[in-house]
Specification:
two-stranded antiparallel ribbon; single chain; 9 strands; hypothetical protein PF0899 fold; extended; alpha+beta
Length: 162
């Protein structure tokens, strides 16, 4: 078993203590349609019909949904080879590559804002002129800064995390 709640890590999960039974909740091929159906039922229809509304899902949920689509396709020749449309009942599914597992966010794009802390202590802009090293008339730059996404109207968000 691997711990997929640690982002960008494939370290084995470690457990301590004793137990006689356990339940592991994880979105996978066998339950992804049920989870998306439950999420869909909880979305506010007034938000759901907005053109810029989408469900943001982690990568493993996108793969599970594509596999579930292929499994449900009957008598379709290319069910397992063609790209799958990433939407659920008309709501676009936006795959978020580095999200924590089992996290789904339903939001309008116009309600999410990118914030950048350019004046913070962690911000840095480095430049290197390569002429003395490689005789190329090239300047390379590297920038580091803090960034986060925030929202404007909390009542228009749907958040699911297992």
């Amino acid at each position: 078993m691997r711990n997929y709640n640690e982002v960008n890590s494939r370290k084995p999960a470690t457990f301590s203590g004793t137990a006689t039974a356990a339940i592991v909740n994880y979105i996978n091929v066998s339950n992804v349609l049920q989870v998306l159906g439950s999420v869909y039922a909880q979305l506010d229809p007034a938000d759901r019909i907005q053109e810029d509304f989408n469900l943001q899902i982690p990568l493993h949920v996108g793969y599970a949904y594509a596999q579930a689509q292929a499994n449900k396709a009957l008598n379709v020749i290319n069910a397992f080879t063609d790209m799958k449309k990433m939407d659920y009942l008309g709501i676009p599914l936006q795959i978020m590559n580095h999200w924590q597992a089992n996290t789904i966010l339903g939001a309008r794009s116009s309600n999410l804002f990118l914030g950048v802390d350019l004046l913070g202590d962690a911000s840095e802009l480095s430049t290197v002129y390569l002429k003395p090293y490689t005789n190329d008339n090239v300047v390379r730059m590297k920038a580091r800064m803090k960034a986060a996404v925030n929202f404007k109207f909390a009542n228009e968000l749907f958040y699911l995390s297992a």
